[in-house]
Design brief:
Helix content: 40-55%
CATH architecture of the largest domain: Orthogonal Bundle
Distance between the termini: 15 Å
CATH topology of the largest domain: Arc Repressor Mutant, subunit A
Number of domains: 2
Number of helices: 13
Largest sheet: 4 strands, mixed
CATH class of the largest domain: Mainly Alpha
Strand content: 15-25%
Shape: globular
Radius of gyration: 19 Å
């Protein structure tokens, strides 16, 4: 993965997501590049370049990566259904970046004031997973969510509804700088300033502690958060996550290993898991990927 790659726009990301879904479903038949490109509605040449720009490897290398991981999973005795289900390689072992992420809850007083006296800077940027809206306070990043094409006005409205009394200043340049920091490989420290109930904040902290290492389950999050029987409530807290990717609810799978739902779409969740897995394996074994070129 080239950490300095330019981010794709939402339309290009949608094509990549379709291709990832196709490879995930069809790798056993070893589809040719033409078939994968057709699934993305692109020519072979354009698709090959687009995929390499997104993943840092070619579609053929990615297919070989998925196949090899599946073979290793089939040959090994896996200790859990979860690991067996994700032997295909869409289960990266940890977060992609070297950011040191800390989480701070908004104070009860700030919640009561609905953001009054807490200026927000909000804006839009492309990311590896499509368009996103970012919002920050002086204390840190308060909101990160993905936006479908044509959805910017609605995203701003939803942000205003979450912080109805907070003065909001549009700042796309700040959003783009945050995107570059998060996905551009620069590292450093980043503080998340979240607004939620005590229960939600506990779950989001558990996600930072456990989910950032790789795929996990709602039950495992419940155990870490000290609420092992509250699986449905854990799922609801994940769905209310205000900061996508950094609080990695995309890494939460069902107990049987199935992908499960995702607030910002299952195709995006699958692509996130794939991007993570490829990046980590590329760091560990670049020679193996090179041989498959």
């Amino acid at each position: 993965m080239n950490p300095r790659h330019a981010f794709l726009d939402s339309r290009d990301f949608a094509r990549i997501a379709r291709a990832i879904r196709f490879i995930d479903a069809s790798y056993r038949s070893q589809p040719r590049l033409a078939a994968i490109a057709a699934a993305a509605h692109l020519s072979e040449f354009h698709f090959n370049r687009l995929f390499r720009r997104w993943a840092g490897i070619t579609p053929r290398q990615y297919l070989a990566f998925i196949t090899a991981r599946a073979a290793r999973g089939a040959l090994a005795s896996t200790p859990s259904v979860l690991e067996a289900a994700y032997a295909v390689g869409l289960s990266g072992p940890g977060r992609l970046h070297d950011l040191m992420v800390t989480l701070e809850a908004v104070t009860p007083g700030e919640i009561k004031r609905a953001g009054a006296g807490v200026p927000l800077r909000g804006g839009f940027s492309d990311t590896p997973f499509g368009r996103a809206i970012f919002a920050s306070t002086a204390r840190g990043l308060a909101h990160l969510s993905f936006v479908e094409p044509g959805g910017e006005a609605r995203a701003l409205q939803e942000l205003a509804e979450r912080w109805p009394q907070a003065p909001l200043r549009r700042d796309d340049a700040a959003a783009q700088a945050l995107a570059a920091r998060i996905w551009g490989g620069e590292g450093g420290a980043l503080t998340l300033s979240v607004r939620g109930t005590n229960f939600q904040v506990k779950v989001w902290q558990a996600l930072l502690d456990l989910g950032a290492r790789g795929p996990t389950t709602y039950a495992a999050l419940g155990r870490l958060a000290g609420m092992p029987r509250a699986v449905r409530a854990i799922g609801a807290a994940c769905g209310a996550n205000p900061i996508a990717w950094l609080i990695p609810c995309h890494n939460v799978l069902r107990g049987d290993g199935a992908l499960g739902g995702y607030h910002w779409g299952e195709d995006r969740k699958r692509a996130m898991l794939a991007w993570d897995a490829v990046a980590r394996d590329r760091v560990r074994a670049p020679a193996a990927l090179a041989r498959s070129a």
